[in-house]
Amino acid sequence: MSGDRSPARATGLRGFFRRDRITGQIAIGLVGVLCVSALVYGVGSASARYKLADVGAWLSAGAKGLVVHANGLAGKVDGKAGVIPQMRGHHIRIVQDGTTVLLIDEDTGVVSRIDPSQLKITQSRVLGGSALQVVAGAGTAYTVDLVKGAVQQIDPLTLAPVGQGATLPAPLSAGGIDAAGTLWVPVPQNGHVVPFQNGRQGRAVVAGAAGDRLALTMAAGTPVITNSTSATALVVRAAGSQKINLPAPVSRSAAGVKVPPVADGQVVPMLGAGGALYLLNTAVGRVDSVALRMPRHQFESPHVLGSRVYLPDRTSGQLLVFNTDRNAWERPITATRPGGTIEILVRDHMLWVNDPDGSTALAFDPDGAVKRIKKYEDKIPGSARRPIPAPNPGGGNGNRANGGGRGPGGSTGAGPPWTPPAPPKPPGDGTPSEPQVVRVDPLSGGARVTFAPSAGGRPEGYVLKGAEEFQVRPRRVPAGASPSFTLAGGSCDKSYQFTVAVQYEAPNGRRAEKESRPSMPVRPCVAPGQPTGFAAAGEDHGARLTWSAAPGTSVVYRVTGTNAPGEVTGTSATVSGLTNDASYPYTLVAKNGAGESTAVTAIANLAYRRAGYRNKANNQTNTIIRPGPAKTGEVGRISQGTYQTLTLICQVRGENVREAETGETSVWWNRIEWNGGVGYLSVTLMEGPRSPGGSTFECA
Could you report the per-residue pLDDT of 258-270, keeping only the tens digit for each? Predict the structure, then answer.
């Protein structure tokens, strides 16, 4: 997993912890503390080896100067290691990938490695400053200086630099390593995302314009770049990149939407401005919207595991949970004290939630089951404990500097608990509450609207508003029936908002309606699938491009390449004005208002199509083979009365010739193969095509 850290997030987190600016003193002090002995419980030997659980995660336990290893299946800690004294009181980020476990002191740029087999720190180096990001995955590791733009591969064991580093236009966004071991680094300065394979910089992928706000998520090992400025997402696959258009409100977030650095599956959750929670399904090119009427709370990036979306609410210290299968918010889960730090890690198909200063961490499995892990169990292998720092006399604000941290359920800090979106309480006058649009899922050629029914009163049914351009089924949802509408129609180039109105009998006996708040804007379509069967057949000075229709609605095609026509509505295109005896690559992308497909390519080969034809009109005299397209010179001859098959290469315009035997006149000459070289014959002296066209090419 990658140790992502954006400058904005780093600034916010460091405000909770004591800073130590004497980086030089720390580097000197590291010399004597590179090896911290491990005391294995029941063994007592620093050289003993301890095997940790395969399904687990390293978590920060800063209140006692430790990092602990938690067993996710058992819900217990099975190992611990002490941090070096110079790291105490600092914000420590843990980066872990297999047996690579690195501790990054985000205040100083000191990086340390834990040997999981010995439960001790074996290496420490100063690799950067406070803006240092360290990423590890697929057996490789890199450092990324987000402020200076420096990228350097490092040895995961020794932490030493490997090969030459690179410098990109700064500042950078947090990078990540994909399933193939390639590092991807977003460069907002030029709108690119730059890959590094085995330490070598590769060809950049364009993700937007210069200055766009870019963020990276590794979704099931595949890079997904969210561009908050243009409201688009780019999915970078080995077969090519796919662009998906996001709802317009994404671009309204001044700091950009919040996305997780890692997603366990192909769904990337996004938290935008104005209470917008979006779920980007990269597998099908669809963006669902979930209702989240945010109070004035501070939320971290959402995460997805299984069918649930987890949204950390730092203000209340809770973890908000949306069940996508039931289209409903579940009961919030207390994760830390109000105002505390909530760190989330997705690893080994589990989601880990940890407050470095708290005593308890949470481990969720894909089914939503949660285990509370006590980080400070007594009898666990590892480094000796250190005493908890005593709080300052006037402290109690929960900052690491004064030791005022409280575990989950504590009362330190401010902020009321958050109540998930649900139908409001009945008004008290006998009428039902307004319904709530919970989720809008775009479909190919329509959408599905799911809502929470009203509470109280006597609802008779529900109708959908704002759907005049659609066929709506059912037209009316009776009270007690499945609370959803399915829509067909609409324009893929247009966004729509919907409301749900409850119909009921008012106390005065009249029929009445009460509408929900509007849904998030949505397009009634999904990004098209990839077109198939793309072929480019070369013709004389041109090419014929054909393909099969891509799945989707309102699909048009963009063809790029030399003299390409641009956008095409059908499944074929003609290209002209090409030079013969050359090859031309063409790229085809299917697109609609929801986004684009992955590109496919084809090569138009305009090499000469050689063909055999017999000579003719050779009854009166010998046929002279000329060195050029004119009746001068000789490179050979065909005896009078002899007829043979000659290989035609191409045709070229030359001297006008009238053949006396046939009376035919032409300015076209055939270039033919002759005695290992070439020669020329007027078309009046050969069978076959009379001028270039189709499979007969003009000579370049």
Answer: 999 999 999 999 9
pLDDT at 604 over 90: yes
Q: Report yes or no on 523 lying in a domain.
A: no
- Count up the domains in the chain and report the number: 4
In a domain, 692, yes or no: no
Tokens 């077969």 — which residue? 239
Joined tokens for residue 9: 């997030």
Distances (CA, A) of 579 to 76, 100, 604, 664, 695: 71, 55, 11, 29, 14
Q: Which helix (DSSP H) or strand (DSSP E) does residue 25 occupy? A: helix 23-29
pTM assigned to the model: 0.79
> For the chain, how many helices (H) and strands (E)?
2, 55
CA angle 442, 447, 451 (to 5 degrees): 105
Q: Would you say residue 418 lies in a domain?
A: no
Q: Where are the beta strands (DSSP E) in 273-358?
A: 276-281, 286-291, 303-305, 308-313, 318-323, 328-329, 333-334, 343-347, 350-354
Question: What is the number of other CB atoms lying within 10 angstroms of the CB of residue 577?
Answer: 8
Closest Cα partner for 127 from 91, 95, 151? 151
Residue 145: name the closest of 161, 158, 156 by CA. Answer: 161
The model's confidence at residue 275, banded by pLDDT at 50, 70 and 90, is low
Give yes or no for residue 657 having a pLDDT over 60.
Answer: yes
Q: How many other C-beta atoms lie within 10 A of the C-beta of residue 471?
A: 12
CATH of the domain at 547: 2.60.40.10
Q: What single DSSP character describes residue 547? A: E
If asked whether residues 562 and 638 sit together in one domain, one would say: no
Q: What is the pLDDT of residues 510-530, one digit of tens each?
A: 899 999 999 988 999 999 999
